[in-house]
Write a structure and sequence with these properties.
Helices cover 36% and strands 14% of the residues.
Length: 479
């Protein structure tokens, strides 16, 4: 016999409210606060825009984390919420309960408090309010209504972005408009300037730029970049096309473009993470960059670029790098002359360095030998990666003896030694298995590794690697 579960009083009340599309914010004055989130979710999922508008104006909590719901970029729903903010701004109420409209994809836990718990909401008002308060960010304790968002600008503005920007532009003097994270990919500088006139650049904490014309873009973008006084994380990536589409740079003096941009780093007092992918700065530019740094970096990533001995020397002398926790030189092929400067850099960061990545550097035995004394001093290492370097078995043994004393290491990646390959560069499976087992024994004689792998170069036929962790896993060509 089937069991009938009658709707709860709360469900009946919510259904009744949802049937009234003409609801206004005053109708919600006596609605218990704990009913707002489940009603909002129902209205949101049912696209009841008039109810959403009224609920935003009457929202009883300091923060409305809309971005956690607005994942399909529904312009109609977004516009309803913005209209609700307009109603709120016209109300002569002080202080307003709603202080922050958060359009970022965060604070999902706010809604999780209510999801699937409709039968418990009415029975624990105080408890639920405490749970909601627990998930309200600190910035929500201010009085003026604040709109917080992240902006991902790729090629052109999307419809929901145009909707938000047009609305925000007309209200930038009555709201606090904050973009905390901005991603820019092949996007016109002229439109970026207009956006930063709405969402002021001094609020931006994270910035990622992907462009195929680095120096010309940076030359135009430099004034905007210098205004990002609270920037903490900056990533610059050069997009490389298989077929060149660059054309002629609009700036005659490329060096001046770079210098104009790099000089702006002297205005960034909170920068902690710096990542640059590509080869676009000269040694003089690199010298300028490390002289302009104003705050100690926690993470430095320079990948896919050519670093000279002069570049490494500037790094080793820059005191703003002496507190690095992460150092990443993936795909940087160092000249042999760089080894000493790289060793000095490692010595200077030995007390703080936790992550070291030297993948695809094609380092030779002689270069690694220079670095071993400095590596032995890096007592805080938790993660190391030496994939795709050309080390012999003998030097690999020295490296592993050095790493065996690192008690905090839990993730280790090493290259298969050169003796695993034949003269044509092809892997010799039984030799790969035996040599890696012997190398593993060196570590296990001192400590028990947690995550450790020995890996060959990518197979030129099947595009996979042979991997040894507990046992050998061969590429498809040998299976």
């Amino acid at each position: 016999m089937s069991t009938y579960n009658p709707p709860t009083l709360q469900e009946l009340a919510l259904d009744a409210l949802l049937m009234n599309d003409a609801i206004v914010s005053s109708d919600l004055d006596h609605l218990p606060p704990e009913l707002f989130p489940p009603l909002f979710l129902e209205a949101f999922n049912g696209r009841h825009t008039e109810i959403l508008k009224a609920m935003v104006a009457a929202w009883p909590f300091p923060c409305l984390p809309l971005g956690a719901l607005l994942k399909n970029r529904d312009v109609e729903v977004l516009q309803a919420v913005l209209d609700g903010i307009d109603i709120l701004l016209t109300q002569n109420v002080s202080p307003r309960k709603l202080q922050v409209l958060d359009l970022r994809d965060v604070h999902q836990d706010f809604w999780d408090v209510w999801t699937g718990r409709k039968d418990e909401v009415c029975s624990a008002k105080t408890g639920n309010e405490k749970q909601v308060a627990k998930h309200i960010p600190r910035y929500a304790l201010r009085q003026r209504v604040k709109v917080v968002t992240d902006l991902s600008l790729c090629l052109c503005l999307q419809q929901h972005q145009t909707c938000l920007l047009q609305w925000a532009k007309q209200r930038k003097h009555s709201l606090r408009l904050c973009c905390l994270k901005m991603d820019i990919c092949l996007f016109p500088v002229e439109i970026i300037r207009e956006i930063l006139n709405i969402f002021q650049p001094n609020y931006i904490e994270e910035l990622e730029i992907d462009t195929d014309q680095v120096l010309s873009f940076l030359g135009c973008f430099a004034p905007c970049f210098g205004q990002m006084r609270n920037l903490r994380k900056f990533l610059l990536r050069e997009i490389r096309w298989i077929v060149s589409v660059r054309g002629v740079l609009p700036f005659a003096d490329v060096k001046n473009c770079a210098a104009k941009f790099l000089s702006q780093f002297s205005k960034l007092n909170y920068l902690q993470y710096l990542s640059m992918y590509g080869d676009y700065f000269s040694s003089d530019n690199m010298k300028q960059l490390f002289r302009c740094l104003k705050s100690p970096l926690e993470s430095l990533s320079m990948t896919g670029c050519h670093l000279s001995n002069s570049d490494l020397k500037h790094m080793s002398e820059c005191q703003r790098l002496y507190q690095l926790k992460c150092l990443n030189f993936d795909s940087v092929v160092f000249p042999k002359s760089c080894s000493k400067s790289l060793r000095i850099l490692l010595e200077n960061v030995s007390d703080t360095l936790q992550i070291l990545k030297l993948e695809s550097c094609r380092m030779k035995d002689s270069q690694l030998k220079v670095l071993l004394p400095a590596l032995g001093q890096c007592s805080q290492l938790t993660t190391v990666s030496f994939y795709e370097n050309d080390f012999s078995t003998a030097v690999m043994k020295d490296l592993l003896k050095c790493m065996a004393n690192q008690s905090k290491l839990f993730n280790e990646k090493y290259p298969a030694p050169l003796e695993c390959y034949d003269h044509g560069g092809y892997i010799i499976p039984h030799r790969f298995s035996q040599l890696c087992r012997n190398l593993m024994d060196i570590l296990m004689a001192r400590r028990q590794p947690e995550i450790i792998t020995f890996t060959t170069d990518i197979c030129r036929y099947c595009m996979n690697r042979c991997i040894y962790d507990i046992r050998p896993i061969l590429c498809r060509c040998w299976q």
